[in-house]
Amino acid sequence: MSDAPLYVGVVYSDGEWLAAAFGGDGFDHADVFPEVGSVWAQYEDVAESILVDVPIGLHEEGEEPRAPEQAARKVLGPRAEAVTDPPVREAARKRRYPAAARVTERKTGRDLSRAAFERSDAIVALDDLLQEVSEARPVIAEAHPEVCFRAFAGTTLAEDPATAAGYAERMRALATFDRDAPPVVQSAAEATAGHTVTVADVLDAVALGYTARPGPGSIRTLPADPPTDPTGLRMGLVYRAEAPLTAADS
C-alpha cells in the first residue's frame, strides 16, 4: 500500500469488518478484517477519513433516541425501517440480551430491539477504540449506508438491499455519483473471497468509501449540528450531497 492519502468506507457484518479504500482519483482496494482495531492499524498512517456504519457516540440515559437516528428516519421515507436505535453505553456492554434490555428499560424507559443488541459487540469495539486512541477521533466518523445512497440517488429508495430490485436501485444511485461504480463494486466483491461478506455489504462499503473520498457535493451531517455524547464523541451521520437532505426532499 502506498503512502498516498486514502478514504475508507467500513461496514461491520457477522463479526467481520469490510473496508473499501479509495485514493483521490478512484478505487484503490478492498479488504476484510477480523476486528476494528485491525482496520485502524492498517490505515492510521494514510487515511484522511474513515467512515464506519457503526454508531459513534452513545447516550448514557434518557427517553429520547439519538439525534442521528431521528434525523435519518425523516429523510429515508420507505427505508426508515433500516434505522436502528443503538443501546445506551451500559446496555451495549452487557453480554446477554435480557440484561441489556433491563438496563435499557431502567436508563431510558424504552425497549431494546434485538437488532440493536446484535450489533453491541461492534459498537463496544469501536467505542473502546475511540476512547483509547485519541488520534482516531478526527479520522473516524459514522455514516449510515442508506443515508449515503439516499444522497447519491437524489430521492428516497424503496427496495430492500437484500433483494435484486434493491441491488439494482443502489447500483443506479452509485452510478449517478460515479459512472465507474459497477467495476468498482465488482473489484471490491472479488476481494472478499473466502469471507461471509454479502453483496449488500459490498455495496454499503463502496457507498461509504465514495462518501469519504473527494467528489461532487460537500460533506454534510445528519443532524446538521451534531451533538456530542458525555465522552466528547460527535453523534452525526456523514453523507455527501450538493444540498442538505431534508424530509421535504423525500
Which secondary structure elements does this structure contain, and how are they paired or packed?
Blueprint: E1 6-13, E2 16-23, E3 26-33, H1 36-43, E4 47-52, H2 67-76, H3 89-92, H4 97-108, H5 114-118, H6 120-132, E5 140-142, H7 145-153, H8 164-177, H9 181-190, H10 199-212, E6 218-222, E7 237-241
Parallel strand pairs: 1-4, 4-5
Antiparallel strand pairs: 1-2, 2-3, 6-7
Helix pairs in contact: 7-8, 7-10, 8-10, 9-10
Task: Please characterize this protein's 3D structure.
This protein has 250 residues and is α/β, with parallel strands linked by helices. Helices cover 40% and strands 17% of the residues. A hairpin with a 2-residue loop joins strand 2 (16-23) and strand 3 (26-33). Helix 7 crosses helix 10 (199-212) and helix 9 (181-190) packs across helix 10. The longest helix has 14 residues, at 164-177. It is globular, with a radius of gyration of 17 Å. The termini are far apart.
